[in-house]
Specification:
single chain, mainly alpha, 2 helices, elongated
């Protein structure tokens, strides 16, 4: 998913290489993390506290 791998490998790679293209991100709020990891789309952190991250803010932060 986006938070699990897409941001760091796909999006950051395109920004770094100054690729041109269209980025389409679908926010479905689901992740199939095998070790029950808490990620930004799960809605809670590892302490089961409500937590979230903004996709648009993360993209802006890496230069999209």
């Amino acid at each position: 998913g986006f938070w699990h791998q897409g941001l760091t490998t796909s999006v950051a790679n395109h920004v770094y290489n100054k690729d041109e293209g269209v980025l389409i991100i679908l926010k479905n709020g689901y992740s199939a993390a095998t070790g029950h990891q808490h990620i930004p789309s799960t809605g809670t952190n590892s302490r089961d506290q409500a937590s979230s991250m903004d996709i648009a803010g993360a993209l802006k932060g890496i230069g999209v």
